[in-house]
Amino acid sequence: MHPLNDQLKAYLHNSFPDVKDADDVLQESYLRIWKIRAKQPIRSVKAYLYTLVRNLAIDSIRRKNRLKTDAITHNSHQIIDEEIPYPADILNKDEKISLLVEAFASLPKRCGQILFLHKIKGLSQHEVASKLGLTEKTVANQIGIGIKRCEKFFKIHGVEFF
After folding, report:
1. Which residues contact 129 (CB under 8 A, 6 or more apart)?
2. What is the DSSP letter of 2?
3. In this predicted structure, what is the pLDDT of residue 2?
4. What region does 77 belong to: left with phi over 0, alpha with psi -120 to 50, or beta?
């Protein structure tokens, strides 16, 4: 992980210029990934580490914004709505696609095929069943399994917004 240190610092400074404690964010990410790897293997440490660094940077910015908002609210006795974007709004299109491709690749072949046709191509369950020669019940079950596995995949990779 340490060979990525300079790349991660550059990523933090370019993507999150408001984060002043890049070293703290990196150290926290190394600690978290070390704890996670002790419990389970991580397929792509680099991708996981970038996701972790991004999420920690976002948390840092949120804390900073919350402190500013709390100070303003406390001093002026006004309620201010925080307009902090969700991580899904911050991810760029390529990152979203990359995570989605990884999630689909982690599914069993038939399950991934069914979920792709239904969720990405927009086919109805009936259309998917007809196209693949399956029953609608099988398609419905596979969609449920695929969604649960994708949610688990995203959670393991530190993303809880899909």
Report:
1. 135, 136, 138, 139
2. G
3. 65
4. left
Rounded CA gap, 155 and 161, in Å? 9
- Domains assigned to the chain: 1-84 (no CATH), 90-162 (1.10.10.10)
DSSP secondary structure string for all residues of 112-148? HHHHIIIIIS---HHHHHHHHT--HHHHHHHHHHHHH
Cα 6 to Cα 90: distance, rounded to the nearest angstrom: 22
Tally the residues of the chain: 162
Query: Which residue has tokens 């680099």?
Result: 46
pLDDT mean by block of 10 residues, the chain; 162 residues? 76 78 81 79 79 82 67 48 50 68 87 90 92 94 91 78 46
What per-residue confidence (pLDDT) applies to 27?
83
Please identify which residue in the block is written with the tokens 């370019």: 14
Question: Is residue 158 classed exposed, middle or buried when 0-12, 13-18 and 19+ CB atoms within 10 A define those classes?
Answer: buried
Name residue, tokens 């201010």. Answer: 80
Alpha-carbon gap, residue 90 to 49, rounded angstroms:
17
Separation of alpha carbons 137 and 153, rounded Å: 24
pLDDT for 92 equals 58
